[in-house]
Fold:
Amino acid sequence: MARLARLSIAGLPHHLLQRGNNRQPIFLLPSEREFFLQRLAAYAAQHGVAVHAYVLLPDHFHLVATPHADGALSGLMQSLGRSYVRHFNDAHGRTGTLWDGRYRSSVLQAHTLLLPCMAYLDLHPVRTGLVAHPAEYAWSSYGHYAGLRVDALLTTPDSVWQLGNTPFARESGYRQLVDNGVAADKQHALTQSVLHGWALGDPEFVAQLQRVTTRRLSPSARGRPVIAR
Structure:
């Protein structure tokens, strides 16, 4: 069965996933993660993409980002991927691909799913046993929103601004959000939507998107659309 064209809609947040080929490590040294984030910041600015959140795991990475124009996300990911693969291959005397095919992505309904998706990223190192708490993991955006450091790469989304009227209130609210965790059904929905490229939101949100694209936005026939609660 032919795969669906990747869904990308300007002005809406997207959840992106890129894995290493055959689940091989894509980051072996801290300096490689630093280079990756530097390149991410540069190419996001060049292509017009606001990066809201990230997590870099040993064999894959996730981003939450909003493109400002059609084609911006694919431009960012192509530039970033090529630059990083050259850097990684040169450092380790290897050739060939590093990625497991093309990146995966889904479109999110901002007011209901942007914050849960950010928490989902922050909690990934905990779920995989790398750390006991998100604050212990240096390679995610948790520290920025929890008030532990400032990360110039990131663009704070409206959903975070609505957590409080002061920086202290927003940081406290964000820490509480992550500590509360992500419900199992919502976690499953976030995973499946990015793996399969579905739009994720309530029925009205998906129906509105379907009116502006001919690309199928939810599972067909055998499955039911994943609906955020």
Notes: Residues 16 and 105 are 4 Å apart (CA to CA). The mean pLDDT is 92. The first strand starts at residue 14 and ends at 19.
